[in-house]
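Translate sequence into structure tokens.
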Amino acid sequence: MLDVVTLGSATKDIFLFAGASSLESGPRSHFLEIPLDKKIEVVRRLEFTGGGATNSAATFANFKKDVAVISKIGDDYNGDFIVDELRRIGVSTRYLIRTEGETPFTNILVSSNGHMIILSMRGIADTMGADELRLDFKSQWMYISPLSGKSYSVLPKVLGYCSKNGIKVALLPGSMELDIGIRGMRDTMGKVDLVAMNIDEAGRFVGSGNYRKNLISLARAVAGTAIITMGGRGSIVASEGRVYKAGVFKARQINTIGAGDAYSSGFVTGLIDGRGIEDCINLASYNAKGVIGGYGAKSGLVDRYPSTGVKIERIGSYLPAA
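Result follows.
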């Protein structure tokens, strides 16, 4: 029996570091100006595997969980790169879907001041269909990272399988779910044990500008726990009628790619280990700290619980849905 199966994207991520004079800050802090018709000198290159399904699987593997990945990749060099990496870190690839086509990849252009431009090619990941899934496993948890394109259509079949076989579900909604909103996803959310998203996504999904109200709405919609991450402001968690607010471990932020995966998969790891909510929050925060301190969504993932914790306070309560 597996401890957890992850579902979602698998990518190859390439970080390209531009020379000192290549990029300048744009009119807003989150834009960069790229000079046209000029060569941009690349002084360093790093390659990693990425994507929500493999990033989360790496956390589970670090904690010696039996984990498998469901994702669709191409029968190409980048696909081989992903398979080799997953096998190296102890993640089962038996449920990977490999077909003719291009494996998803992301090119991240990093400026001299650390700002990034992210160019994403989804490849065949968006074409994953329910008929391609091999659902014959037994597992404690199913961890569903954001799905896009046609791959979103697999959700009903996966949730039905999990419900029938007593598998708990963690869901990180993608753009399609966020656009549908919590009202349109009511039936789906009722089959989910844990939902996690960042503060902007929660506002988009629930429709309120109050993040605490959004959290409670999420918690009442699911069968267990709701999480909203808030970057440097920490996180809030609602579970079993209690609302918690947590700080962060101090770290120099270099990269945010994969931080959400690190937090959520760390939290689920704590649940698999039978830990209480505060231990889960501490591990989740510690795992996210490791990722934001370096490049690559897996490079800083931890393999142990922290010796100290973040500040956690109980800030309220709510009445769970009947």
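Note: The chain has a mean pLDDT of 93.
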